[in-house]
């Protein structure tokens, strides 16, 4: 299969080498080697079933034990795809935001502090500081600062998703994985989540799976195109969208399949 993977020549946040993911008899990701530059947004695009979510979930060891993940995932010079590496520690550094907002049925405040307390942070000044900083980073603070004890379930869908982003940021991760974070949101909430992502790039590396090609071209610096479980093309987003090297990428972005 024709492929084109551009070298970034940038400092990397994480990289996979020959990654493959197998569910029982069904191999969903094949021989995928990709580099994710630090403090950039990389979009993973491709048709339904092309393996985008499966690949993303392997980056912070979200797959359960029944799923086989072969190959290397290099993070800070360590292959984190080794059984001896604790997946809970990995997830503190590499957070995940899901497609549907999934706040806890707790107050806004407790959504943020829950994981912190579980990780032994109990000093109330530190907790208050993290609540404020995380909500500000997720562009939600101004809307909720007077209502921190309100149930998160009373927020709108878009606010709930930004709360989930704040919750992921409260542990000060290095990388944020986002699986279709705006697909359940209306256009105004989507724009707020995208604006939040653009701001976060300064401090975080973001990898986003999206069906929405306009979204990929609006928010991302780099784009990886997946087809049938393989990386077909990886390059700067403008190059992927304007001058794709591979015919299959061109067909996909021009709407000829998918
Ligand atoms: N938990 C699972 N168990 C078995 N097979 C799975 C599981 N999750 C995904 N698959 C299979 O892996 C392949 C890739 O699915 P995946 O969800 O990663 O694709 P995707 O590109 O993210 O699709 P979509 O855009 O529809 O979410 C598909 O064939 C799918 O049926």
The CATH architecture name reads 3-Layer(aba) Sandwich
Proportion in β-strands: 25-35%
Helix segment tally: 10
Radius of gyration (CA) equals: 18 Å
Mean pLDDT: 95
> Which regions contain 5 or more consecutive residues with pLDDT less than 50?
none
Structural class: alpha/beta
Number of domains: 1
Largest sheet: 7 strands, mixed
CATH topology: Rossmann fold
Q: Number of DSSP strands?
A: 11
Query: Given this structure, which CATH class is correct?
Result: Alpha Beta
Compressed to H and E, one letter per element, the order equals: EEEEHEEHEHHHHEHEHEEHH
Helical fraction equals: 25-40%
Termini gap: 18 Å
The CATH superfamily is: P-loop containing nucleotide triphosphate hydrolases
Bound small molecules, which ones? adenosine-5'-triphosphate
Q: What overall form do the CA principal axes indicate?
A: globular
Strand order of the largest sheet: 1-11-10-4-9-8-7
InterPro entries: AAA+_ATPase (IPR003593), ABC_transporter-like_ATP-bd (IPR003439), ABC_transporter-like_CS (IPR017871), P-loop_NTPase (IPR027417), PstB-like (IPR005670)
Protein name: Phosphate ABC transporter ATPase
Pfam families: ABC_tran
Keywords: ATP-binding, Cell membrane, Membrane, Nucleotide-binding, Phosphate transport, Translocase, Transport
